[in-house]
Amino acid sequence: xxxxxxxxxxxxxxxxxxxxxxxxxxxxxxxxxxxxxxxxxxxxxxxxxxxxxxxxxxxxxxxxxxxxxxxxxxxxxxxxxxxxxxxxxxxxxxxxxxxxxxxxxxxxxxxxxxxxxxxxxxxxxxxxxxxxxxxxxxxxxxxxxxxxxxxxxxxxxxxxxxxxxxxxxxxxxxxxxxxxxxxxxxxxxxxxxxxxxxxxxxxxxxxxxxxxxxxxxxxxxxxxxxxxxxxxxxxxxxxxxxxxxxxxxxxxxxxxxxxxxxxxxxxxxxxxxxxxxxxxxxxxxxxxxxxxxxxxxxxxxxxxxxxxxxxxxxxxxxxxxxxxxxxxxxxxxxxxxxxxxxxxxxxxxxxxxxxxxxxxxxxxxxxxxxxxxxxxxxxxxxxxxxxxxxxxxxxxxxxxxxxxxxxxxxxxxxxxxxxxxxxxxxxxxxxxxxxxxxxxxxxxxxxxxxxxxxxxxxxx
Length: 460
Fold this sequence. Notes:
Elements: E1 3-7, H1 11-23, E2 27-31, H2 34-43, E3 48-52, E4 54-55, E5 58-59, H3 60-69, E6 76-80, H4 85-93, E7 98-101, H5 106-136, H6 145-157, E8 164-167, H7 174-183, E9 192-196, H8 205-210, E10 211-212, E11 224-225, H9 227-230, E12 235-239, H10 246-258, E13 260-261, E14 270-271, E15 275-280, H11 284-289, H12 295-301, E16 304-307, H13 318-332, E17 339-340, H14 342-350, H15 356-370, E18 375-376, H16 383-394, H17 413-431, H18 436-442, H19 447-456
Parallel strand pairs: 1-2, 1-3, 3-6, 6-7, 8-15, 8-16, 9-12, 12-15, 17-18
Antiparallel strand pairs: 4-5, 10-11, 13-14
Helix pairs in contact: 2-3, 5-13, 13-15, 14-16, 17-18, 18-19
Protein backbone atom coordinates (compact mmCIF):
# COMPACT_ATOMS: atom_id res chain seq x y z
CA UNK A 1 0.00 0.00 0.00
CA UNK A 2 1.43 3.38 -1.06
CA UNK A 3 1.54 6.18 1.53
CA UNK A 4 0.58 9.64 0.24
CA UNK A 5 0.88 13.05 1.93
CA UNK A 6 -1.78 15.61 0.91
CA UNK A 7 -1.07 19.26 1.79
CA UNK A 8 -3.84 21.85 1.30
CA UNK A 9 -5.49 24.49 3.49
CA UNK A 10 -9.01 23.80 2.16
CA UNK A 11 -10.72 21.24 4.48
CA UNK A 12 -13.22 20.22 1.79
CA UNK A 13 -10.47 19.45 -0.75
CA UNK A 14 -8.44 17.51 1.81
CA UNK A 15 -11.51 15.45 2.73
CA UNK A 16 -12.39 14.81 -0.93
CA UNK A 17 -8.86 13.69 -1.79
CA UNK A 18 -8.68 11.56 1.37
CA UNK A 19 -11.86 9.68 0.44
CA UNK A 20 -10.77 9.29 -3.19
CA UNK A 21 -7.26 7.95 -2.50
CA UNK A 22 -8.45 5.65 0.27
CA UNK A 23 -10.80 4.02 -2.27
CA UNK A 24 -7.70 3.61 -4.49
CA UNK A 25 -6.00 1.61 -1.70
CA UNK A 26 -3.66 4.41 -0.52
CA UNK A 27 -2.64 5.08 3.07
CA UNK A 28 -3.15 8.82 3.48
CA UNK A 29 -1.92 11.64 5.74
CA UNK A 30 -3.25 15.19 5.41
CA UNK A 31 -1.70 18.53 6.41
CA UNK A 32 -2.81 22.14 6.02
CA UNK A 33 0.48 24.07 6.37
CA UNK A 34 4.11 23.92 5.27
CA UNK A 35 5.23 23.52 8.89
CA UNK A 36 2.94 20.54 9.55
CA UNK A 37 3.91 18.87 6.27
CA UNK A 38 7.63 19.17 7.08
CA UNK A 39 7.05 17.66 10.55
CA UNK A 40 5.31 14.66 8.89
CA UNK A 41 8.20 14.28 6.44
CA UNK A 42 10.74 14.32 9.26
CA UNK A 43 8.91 11.49 11.03
CA UNK A 44 8.36 9.04 8.16
CA UNK A 45 8.84 8.37 4.46
CA UNK A 46 6.07 8.93 1.96
CA UNK A 47 5.75 7.38 -1.49
CA UNK A 48 4.41 10.63 -2.95
CA UNK A 49 3.54 14.18 -1.86
CA UNK A 50 0.70 16.23 -3.39
CA UNK A 51 0.75 19.84 -2.22
CA UNK A 52 -0.98 23.13 -2.98
CA UNK A 53 1.29 25.93 -4.20
CA UNK A 54 0.05 28.62 -1.81
CA UNK A 55 -0.34 27.72 1.86
CA UNK A 56 -1.05 29.91 4.90
CA UNK A 57 2.57 29.91 6.09
CA UNK A 58 4.47 29.71 2.80
CA UNK A 59 4.74 27.99 -0.57
CA UNK A 60 4.50 24.32 -1.43
CA UNK A 61 7.89 24.64 -3.10
CA UNK A 62 9.37 24.90 0.41
CA UNK A 63 8.11 21.36 1.04
CA UNK A 64 9.72 20.21 -2.21
CA UNK A 65 12.98 21.87 -1.16
CA UNK A 66 12.83 20.05 2.19
CA UNK A 67 12.36 16.70 0.42
CA UNK A 68 15.41 17.33 -1.75
CA UNK A 69 17.36 18.43 1.35
CA UNK A 70 16.64 15.00 2.81
CA UNK A 71 18.06 13.49 -0.40
CA UNK A 72 14.90 11.53 -1.03
CA UNK A 73 13.45 10.67 -4.44
CA UNK A 74 9.83 11.14 -3.29
CA UNK A 75 7.73 12.33 -6.28
CA UNK A 76 6.15 15.76 -5.72
CA UNK A 77 3.00 16.96 -7.50
CA UNK A 78 1.95 20.59 -7.16
CA UNK A 79 -1.67 21.78 -7.13
CA UNK A 80 -2.30 25.40 -7.99
CA UNK A 81 -5.09 27.77 -8.84
CA UNK A 82 -2.51 30.32 -9.94
CA UNK A 83 -1.05 28.45 -12.88
CA UNK A 84 1.50 30.18 -15.03
CA UNK A 85 4.46 29.18 -17.16
CA UNK A 86 6.80 30.62 -14.56
CA UNK A 87 5.20 28.61 -11.75
CA UNK A 88 5.40 25.36 -13.71
CA UNK A 89 8.99 25.95 -14.81
CA UNK A 90 10.09 26.81 -11.26
CA UNK A 91 8.44 23.71 -9.85
CA UNK A 92 9.94 21.41 -12.48
CA UNK A 93 13.40 23.00 -12.14
CA UNK A 94 13.25 22.28 -8.42
CA UNK A 95 12.46 18.61 -9.03
CA UNK A 96 8.66 18.40 -9.08
CA UNK A 97 7.29 15.48 -11.08
CA UNK A 98 4.38 17.52 -12.49
CA UNK A 99 1.62 19.95 -11.56
CA UNK A 100 -2.19 20.08 -11.83
CA UNK A 101 -4.40 23.15 -12.13
CA UNK A 102 -7.42 23.70 -9.86
CA UNK A 103 -10.18 22.85 -10.35
CA UNK A 104 -9.38 19.33 -11.53
CA UNK A 105 -11.14 16.01 -11.95
CA UNK A 106 -10.31 13.29 -9.43
CA UNK A 107 -9.46 10.90 -12.26
CA UNK A 108 -6.97 13.46 -13.56
CA UNK A 109 -4.98 13.67 -10.33
CA UNK A 110 -5.37 9.92 -9.79
CA UNK A 111 -3.78 9.24 -13.17
CA UNK A 112 -0.97 11.71 -12.44
CA UNK A 113 -0.21 10.09 -9.08
CA UNK A 114 -0.20 6.64 -10.69
CA UNK A 115 2.28 7.75 -13.34
CA UNK A 116 4.53 9.37 -10.74
CA UNK A 117 4.64 6.17 -8.69
CA UNK A 118 5.39 4.10 -11.81
CA UNK A 119 8.20 6.51 -12.67
CA UNK A 120 9.66 6.17 -9.18
CA UNK A 121 9.43 2.37 -9.35
CA UNK A 122 11.18 2.38 -12.72
CA UNK A 123 14.01 4.55 -11.33
CA UNK A 124 14.39 2.19 -8.38
CA UNK A 125 14.52 -0.88 -10.63
CA UNK A 126 17.05 0.78 -12.93
CA UNK A 127 19.24 1.70 -9.96
CA UNK A 128 19.13 -1.92 -8.80
CA UNK A 129 19.92 -3.10 -12.32
CA UNK A 130 22.91 -0.76 -12.56
CA UNK A 131 24.19 -2.05 -9.24
CA UNK A 132 23.75 -5.62 -10.47
CA UNK A 133 25.53 -4.83 -13.74
CA UNK A 134 28.40 -3.20 -11.84
CA UNK A 135 28.89 -6.23 -9.61
CA UNK A 136 28.74 -8.65 -12.54
CA UNK A 137 30.69 -6.60 -15.07
CA UNK A 138 33.94 -8.47 -14.44
CA UNK A 139 32.49 -11.95 -14.10
CA UNK A 140 32.97 -14.67 -16.71
CA UNK A 141 29.46 -15.22 -18.03
CA UNK A 142 28.58 -18.61 -19.45
CA UNK A 143 27.64 -22.23 -18.75
CA UNK A 144 29.62 -23.97 -21.50
CA UNK A 145 32.27 -26.49 -20.55
CA UNK A 146 34.92 -24.19 -22.03
CA UNK A 147 33.97 -21.33 -19.69
CA UNK A 148 33.77 -23.68 -16.72
CA UNK A 149 37.29 -24.92 -17.52
CA UNK A 150 38.56 -21.33 -17.80
CA UNK A 151 36.98 -20.43 -14.45
CA UNK A 152 38.71 -23.41 -12.82
CA UNK A 153 42.07 -22.47 -14.36
CA UNK A 154 41.69 -18.83 -13.33
CA UNK A 155 40.97 -19.89 -9.77
CA UNK A 156 44.11 -22.06 -9.80
CA UNK A 157 46.56 -19.54 -11.26
CA UNK A 158 45.21 -16.26 -9.83
CA UNK A 159 46.92 -16.54 -6.40
CA UNK A 160 50.34 -17.03 -8.03
CA UNK A 161 52.66 -14.31 -9.38
CA UNK A 162 53.21 -16.10 -12.71
CA UNK A 163 52.96 -14.21 -15.99
CA UNK A 164 49.95 -15.43 -17.98
CA UNK A 165 49.31 -15.24 -21.72
CA UNK A 166 45.64 -15.13 -22.73
CA UNK A 167 44.95 -16.07 -26.35
CA UNK A 168 41.87 -16.03 -28.54
CA UNK A 169 40.16 -14.24 -31.39
CA UNK A 170 39.28 -10.57 -31.13
CA UNK A 171 36.16 -9.96 -29.06
CA UNK A 172 36.15 -13.26 -27.17
CA UNK A 173 36.51 -11.63 -23.74
CA UNK A 174 40.25 -11.89 -23.04
CA UNK A 175 40.21 -8.74 -20.91
CA UNK A 176 37.37 -10.20 -18.81
CA UNK A 177 39.59 -13.22 -18.12
CA UNK A 178 42.43 -10.90 -17.12
CA UNK A 179 40.12 -8.97 -14.79
CA UNK A 180 38.91 -12.22 -13.25
CA UNK A 181 42.53 -13.22 -12.56
CA UNK A 182 43.23 -9.83 -10.98
CA UNK A 183 40.07 -9.96 -8.87
CA UNK A 184 41.06 -13.34 -7.38
CA UNK A 185 44.76 -12.53 -6.99
CA UNK A 186 46.79 -11.38 -4.01
CA UNK A 187 46.90 -7.86 -5.51
CA UNK A 188 43.11 -7.56 -5.99
CA UNK A 189 43.03 -4.37 -3.91
CA UNK A 190 45.58 -2.73 -6.20
CA UNK A 191 44.90 -1.05 -9.56
CA UNK A 192 44.13 -2.89 -12.79
CA UNK A 193 45.75 -1.03 -15.71
CA UNK A 194 44.72 -2.20 -19.19
CA UNK A 195 46.98 -1.14 -22.07
CA UNK A 196 46.17 -1.76 -25.74
CA UNK A 197 49.63 -2.07 -27.28
CA UNK A 198 48.22 -1.79 -30.79
CA UNK A 199 46.53 1.53 -30.09
CA UNK A 200 49.69 3.47 -29.14
CA UNK A 201 51.97 4.84 -31.83
CA UNK A 202 55.47 3.39 -32.03
CA UNK A 203 57.03 6.77 -31.20
CA UNK A 204 55.10 7.05 -27.92
CA UNK A 205 54.94 3.47 -26.69
CA UNK A 206 58.12 3.63 -24.56
CA UNK A 207 57.07 6.88 -22.85
CA UNK A 208 53.55 5.56 -22.25
CA UNK A 209 54.71 2.28 -20.73
CA UNK A 210 57.69 3.49 -18.70
CA UNK A 211 57.07 7.24 -18.25
CA UNK A 212 59.43 10.11 -18.94
CA UNK A 213 61.44 12.89 -17.34
CA UNK A 214 60.72 16.56 -17.86
CA UNK A 215 62.58 17.79 -20.94
CA UNK A 216 63.22 14.30 -22.31
CA UNK A 217 61.61 15.30 -25.62
CA UNK A 218 59.57 18.11 -27.13
CA UNK A 219 56.33 18.42 -25.21
CA UNK A 220 57.62 16.70 -22.05
CA UNK A 221 56.83 19.67 -19.81
CA UNK A 222 56.69 17.69 -16.60
CA UNK A 223 57.75 14.36 -15.10
CA UNK A 224 55.23 11.63 -15.79
CA UNK A 225 54.83 8.06 -14.56
CA UNK A 226 54.13 5.34 -17.13
CA UNK A 227 51.58 2.53 -17.06
CA UNK A 228 53.92 0.18 -15.21
CA UNK A 229 54.29 2.63 -12.33
CA UNK A 230 50.54 3.29 -12.31
CA UNK A 231 50.01 -0.46 -11.87
CA UNK A 232 52.23 -0.54 -8.76
CA UNK A 233 50.79 -2.99 -6.24
CA UNK A 234 48.29 -4.30 -8.79
CA UNK A 235 48.10 -5.73 -12.30
CA UNK A 236 49.12 -4.43 -15.71
CA UNK A 237 47.31 -6.07 -18.65
CA UNK A 238 49.14 -5.78 -21.98
CA UNK A 239 46.46 -6.41 -24.59
CA UNK A 240 47.38 -7.11 -28.22
CA UNK A 241 50.97 -7.82 -27.17
CA UNK A 242 51.67 -9.10 -30.67
CA UNK A 243 51.43 -5.51 -31.95
CA UNK A 244 54.31 -4.35 -29.76
CA UNK A 245 57.19 -3.02 -31.92
CA UNK A 246 60.19 -5.36 -32.04
CA UNK A 247 62.54 -2.80 -30.44
CA UNK A 248 60.16 -2.40 -27.49
CA UNK A 249 60.02 -6.16 -27.01
CA UNK A 250 63.65 -6.03 -25.88
CA UNK A 251 62.80 -3.42 -23.22
CA UNK A 252 59.74 -5.40 -22.06
CA UNK A 253 61.78 -8.58 -21.70
CA UNK A 254 64.27 -6.75 -19.48
CA UNK A 255 61.44 -5.33 -17.35
CA UNK A 256 59.99 -8.80 -16.85
CA UNK A 257 63.38 -10.21 -15.91
CA UNK A 258 64.69 -7.36 -13.74
CA UNK A 259 61.41 -6.06 -12.26
CA UNK A 260 62.60 -2.51 -12.97
CA UNK A 261 61.88 0.24 -15.48
CA UNK A 262 63.72 3.34 -16.62
CA UNK A 263 61.79 6.46 -17.54
CA UNK A 264 62.66 8.08 -20.88
CA UNK A 265 65.37 10.68 -20.18
CA UNK A 266 66.46 9.20 -16.85
CA UNK A 267 69.60 7.22 -16.08
CA UNK A 268 68.54 5.47 -12.90
CA UNK A 269 66.16 2.51 -12.77
CA UNK A 270 63.01 2.29 -10.66
CA UNK A 271 61.87 -0.97 -9.09
CA UNK A 272 58.32 -2.05 -9.92
CA UNK A 273 55.97 -4.45 -8.19
CA UNK A 274 53.04 -5.46 -10.36
CA UNK A 275 51.53 -8.60 -11.87
CA UNK A 276 51.91 -8.80 -15.66
CA UNK A 277 49.19 -10.35 -17.83
CA UNK A 278 49.27 -10.30 -21.63
CA UNK A 279 46.83 -11.16 -24.41
CA UNK A 280 46.95 -11.63 -28.15
CA UNK A 281 44.66 -12.52 -31.03
CA UNK A 282 47.54 -13.55 -33.30
CA UNK A 283 49.63 -16.72 -33.38
CA UNK A 284 52.82 -15.61 -31.63
CA UNK A 285 54.69 -18.77 -32.61
CA UNK A 286 54.01 -17.95 -36.25
CA UNK A 287 55.05 -14.33 -35.56
CA UNK A 288 58.34 -15.68 -34.17
CA UNK A 289 58.90 -17.62 -37.40
CA UNK A 290 58.28 -14.41 -39.36
CA UNK A 291 60.77 -12.50 -37.16
CA UNK A 292 57.95 -10.21 -35.97
CA UNK A 293 58.10 -11.37 -32.34
CA UNK A 294 61.03 -12.31 -30.12
CA UNK A 295 61.16 -15.97 -29.16
CA UNK A 296 62.74 -15.24 -25.76
CA UNK A 297 59.90 -12.83 -24.92
CA UNK A 298 57.31 -15.43 -25.95
CA UNK A 299 58.94 -17.97 -23.60
CA UNK A 300 58.85 -15.40 -20.79
CA UNK A 301 55.21 -14.47 -21.37
CA UNK A 302 53.88 -17.95 -22.07
CA UNK A 303 54.51 -19.49 -18.66
CA UNK A 304 50.81 -20.26 -18.36
CA UNK A 305 48.44 -19.95 -21.32
CA UNK A 306 44.67 -19.55 -21.19
CA UNK A 307 42.91 -19.95 -24.52
CA UNK A 308 39.48 -18.33 -24.85
CA UNK A 309 37.46 -20.13 -27.55
CA UNK A 310 35.32 -18.19 -30.07
CA UNK A 311 31.62 -17.79 -29.38
CA UNK A 312 30.65 -20.13 -32.24
CA UNK A 313 32.34 -22.95 -30.32
CA UNK A 314 30.38 -22.27 -27.14
CA UNK A 315 26.85 -21.58 -28.32
CA UNK A 316 25.49 -22.75 -24.98
CA UNK A 317 26.65 -19.39 -23.58
CA UNK A 318 24.64 -17.29 -26.05
CA UNK A 319 21.31 -17.25 -24.09
CA UNK A 320 23.02 -16.29 -20.83
CA UNK A 321 25.20 -13.65 -22.50
CA UNK A 322 22.14 -12.31 -24.30
CA UNK A 323 20.19 -11.98 -21.06
CA UNK A 324 23.14 -10.29 -19.34
CA UNK A 325 23.76 -7.79 -22.16
CA UNK A 326 20.06 -6.94 -22.58
CA UNK A 327 19.83 -6.13 -18.87
CA UNK A 328 23.06 -4.13 -18.98
CA UNK A 329 22.05 -2.14 -22.09
CA UNK A 330 18.53 -1.50 -20.76
CA UNK A 331 19.99 -0.24 -17.50
CA UNK A 332 22.21 2.20 -19.40
CA UNK A 333 19.12 3.37 -21.35
CA UNK A 334 17.05 3.76 -18.14
CA UNK A 335 14.33 1.41 -19.32
CA UNK A 336 13.18 -2.09 -18.28
CA UNK A 337 14.74 -4.96 -20.27
CA UNK A 338 12.61 -6.07 -23.25
CA UNK A 339 11.66 -9.67 -23.98
CA UNK A 340 13.21 -11.51 -26.95
CA UNK A 341 10.89 -13.83 -28.85
CA UNK A 342 11.87 -17.31 -30.04
CA UNK A 343 12.57 -16.14 -33.61
CA UNK A 344 15.13 -13.65 -32.30
CA UNK A 345 16.81 -16.28 -30.12
CA UNK A 346 16.90 -18.74 -33.04
CA UNK A 347 18.60 -16.12 -35.22
CA UNK A 348 21.13 -15.35 -32.49
CA UNK A 349 21.88 -19.05 -32.06
CA UNK A 350 22.29 -19.59 -35.81
CA UNK A 351 24.76 -16.78 -36.53
CA UNK A 352 28.47 -17.69 -36.53
CA UNK A 353 29.57 -14.49 -34.72
CA UNK A 354 32.86 -13.66 -36.44
CA UNK A 355 33.16 -10.68 -34.06
CA UNK A 356 32.41 -12.93 -31.06
CA UNK A 357 31.03 -11.47 -27.81
CA UNK A 358 31.74 -7.88 -28.85
CA UNK A 359 29.62 -8.36 -31.98
CA UNK A 360 26.83 -9.98 -29.95
CA UNK A 361 26.66 -7.00 -27.60
CA UNK A 362 26.58 -4.54 -30.52
CA UNK A 363 23.75 -6.48 -32.19
CA UNK A 364 21.78 -6.52 -28.93
CA UNK A 365 22.32 -2.81 -28.37
CA UNK A 366 20.93 -2.11 -31.85
CA UNK A 367 17.98 -4.43 -31.15
CA UNK A 368 17.18 -2.74 -27.81
CA UNK A 369 17.33 0.73 -29.39
CA UNK A 370 15.03 -0.32 -32.25
CA UNK A 371 12.62 -2.30 -30.06
CA UNK A 372 9.17 -1.04 -29.15
CA UNK A 373 10.17 -0.96 -25.49
CA UNK A 374 8.71 -4.19 -24.16
CA UNK A 375 9.66 -6.67 -26.91
CA UNK A 376 12.48 -7.20 -29.39
CA UNK A 377 11.14 -8.51 -32.71
CA UNK A 378 13.10 -10.22 -35.45
CA UNK A 379 13.05 -7.07 -37.61
CA UNK A 380 15.27 -5.31 -35.06
CA UNK A 381 18.19 -7.59 -35.97
CA UNK A 382 20.73 -6.75 -38.70
CA UNK A 383 19.92 -7.95 -42.22
CA UNK A 384 22.77 -10.48 -42.24
CA UNK A 385 21.28 -12.30 -39.24
CA UNK A 386 17.81 -12.29 -40.80
CA UNK A 387 19.14 -13.81 -44.01
CA UNK A 388 21.05 -16.46 -42.04
CA UNK A 389 17.93 -17.25 -40.01
CA UNK A 390 15.84 -17.59 -43.18
CA UNK A 391 18.41 -19.88 -44.76
CA UNK A 392 18.50 -22.02 -41.64
CA UNK A 393 14.71 -22.28 -41.54
CA UNK A 394 14.72 -23.47 -45.16
CA UNK A 395 17.32 -26.08 -44.26
CA UNK A 396 15.67 -27.08 -40.99
CA UNK A 397 13.99 -30.23 -42.31
CA UNK A 398 16.15 -33.32 -42.77
CA UNK A 399 16.20 -34.44 -46.38
CA UNK A 400 15.80 -38.15 -47.16
CA UNK A 401 18.16 -37.73 -50.07
CA UNK A 402 20.59 -35.14 -51.37
CA UNK A 403 18.74 -32.52 -53.47
CA UNK A 404 19.53 -32.54 -57.19
CA UNK A 405 19.71 -28.76 -57.50
CA UNK A 406 22.49 -28.03 -55.03
CA UNK A 407 23.80 -24.48 -54.51
CA UNK A 408 27.25 -23.87 -55.95
CA UNK A 409 28.85 -23.89 -52.50
CA UNK A 410 26.97 -27.02 -51.44
CA UNK A 411 24.95 -27.43 -48.23
CA UNK A 412 25.98 -27.14 -44.58
CA UNK A 413 25.12 -30.64 -43.35
CA UNK A 414 26.29 -30.00 -39.79
CA UNK A 415 24.12 -26.88 -39.54
CA UNK A 416 21.09 -28.73 -40.93
CA UNK A 417 21.51 -31.54 -38.40
CA UNK A 418 22.08 -29.06 -35.57
CA UNK A 419 18.92 -27.10 -36.39
CA UNK A 420 16.88 -30.28 -36.68
CA UNK A 421 18.16 -31.50 -33.31
CA UNK A 422 17.39 -28.12 -31.73
CA UNK A 423 13.80 -28.19 -33.06
CA UNK A 424 13.22 -31.74 -31.83
CA UNK A 425 14.52 -30.98 -28.34
CA UNK A 426 12.40 -27.83 -28.06
CA UNK A 427 9.29 -29.65 -29.27
CA UNK A 428 9.92 -32.46 -26.79
CA UNK A 429 10.28 -29.93 -23.97
CA UNK A 430 7.06 -28.17 -25.03
CA UNK A 431 5.10 -31.42 -25.09
CA UNK A 432 6.60 -32.46 -21.75
CA UNK A 433 5.65 -29.05 -20.28
CA UNK A 434 9.30 -28.25 -19.60
CA UNK A 435 10.07 -31.47 -17.70
CA UNK A 436 13.48 -32.57 -18.94
CA UNK A 437 13.20 -36.19 -17.80
CA UNK A 438 10.00 -36.72 -19.77
CA UNK A 439 11.40 -34.86 -22.78
CA UNK A 440 14.44 -37.15 -22.74
CA UNK A 441 12.17 -40.22 -22.65
CA UNK A 442 10.19 -38.94 -25.66
CA UNK A 443 13.43 -38.69 -27.64
CA UNK A 444 14.77 -42.05 -26.45
CA UNK A 445 17.73 -40.41 -24.72
CA UNK A 446 19.22 -40.81 -21.27
CA UNK A 447 18.72 -37.77 -19.06
CA UNK A 448 22.46 -37.11 -19.04
CA UNK A 449 22.66 -37.25 -22.84
CA UNK A 450 19.61 -35.02 -23.18
CA UNK A 451 21.06 -32.44 -20.79
CA UNK A 452 24.40 -32.43 -22.65
CA UNK A 453 22.74 -31.96 -26.06
CA UNK A 454 20.47 -29.19 -24.75
CA UNK A 455 23.41 -27.32 -23.20
CA UNK A 456 25.49 -27.70 -26.37
CA UNK A 457 22.67 -26.19 -28.43
CA UNK A 458 22.06 -23.37 -25.94
CA UNK A 459 18.59 -24.57 -24.88
CA UNK A 460 17.69 -23.65 -21.33
